[in-house]
Amino acid sequence: MTETKSSGSAVVSLKSVVEEMDLPSEEWTAYLNRRTGELITVTDEDQRLADSDADLSNLPEWQQESVAQARTALESNGFLALPGKFEIREYSIVERFCLGVEGAALKDTLLRVIRGAGAFRRFREIVQEHGIAEAWYTFRQQALEEFAAEWLEANGVAYSRD
User: Fold this and answer.
1) Cβ–Cβ contacts within 10 Å for residue 30, how many?
2) 10 Å Cβ neighbour count for 46?
3) DSSP per position, 113-124
4) N or C: which terminus of the chain has fewer CB atoms within 10 Å of its end residue's CB?
5) Residue 32: what are its φ and ψ, rounded to 5°?
6) Burial letters for 66-81: b for 16+ Cβ neighbours within 10 Å, e otherwise?
């Protein structure tokens, strides 16, 4: 297990951070509690409600708790917003994978299909068709772990590779 040390904060799981960074919706933001290592996800709706002065008593209890958690994350200096899709630059990861593919014809095909609208869909189709999907997912996971580790280190957050 590789681990970085930082005084005054919990050690967070790199795997958990990567999972939260890779949220399925752009309408969600993940936050890391620097002190406890807790990861929470805040929806855009919860953020909107947390930022408003609206009466929340008519909301279901679970949603009141979710909004309270969102408010805590948004108002506290102890929480860090995890990088989103824009900061991660997924296209760059795809391009690096394509450049590393063996076979000039396949490499050229991949580099061509990642241009323009629908690039990610076409890319996924080609990697499936050529049987390199597992290599892609492994490469992507490693790239996300590297990105997350660098981000955690830059923010002085201790982490473990588990």
Assistant:
1) 21
2) 23
3) HTSSTTHHHHHH
4) N
5) -115, 125
6) bbebbbbbbeeeebbe
141 in Cβ contact with 14 (< 8 Å): no
Q: Which of 89, 66, 85, 78 is nearest to 31 (CA)?
A: 78
How far apart are alpha carbons 42 and 63 in whole angstroms? 11
Q: What is the pTM of this model?
A: 0.83
Q: Residue 86 contacts by C-beta under 8 Å, 6 or more apart in sequence?
A: none
Longest dimension (CA), the chain: 62
CA distance 154 to 82: 12
pLDDT tens-place values along the chain, 162 residues long? 334 444 456 899 999 999 999 877 788 999 999 999 999 999 999 999 998 888 888 889 998 899 989 999 988 888 999 998 889 999 999 999 999 999 999 999 999 999 999 999 999 999 999 999 999 999 999 999 999 999 999 999 999 997
Structure tokens of 10? 């919990």
Residue extents of the structural domains in the chain: 12-84, 89-142
Q: Determine contact, residues 37/10, Cβ cutoff 8 Å.
A: yes
Structure-token match 């095909």, residue found = 109
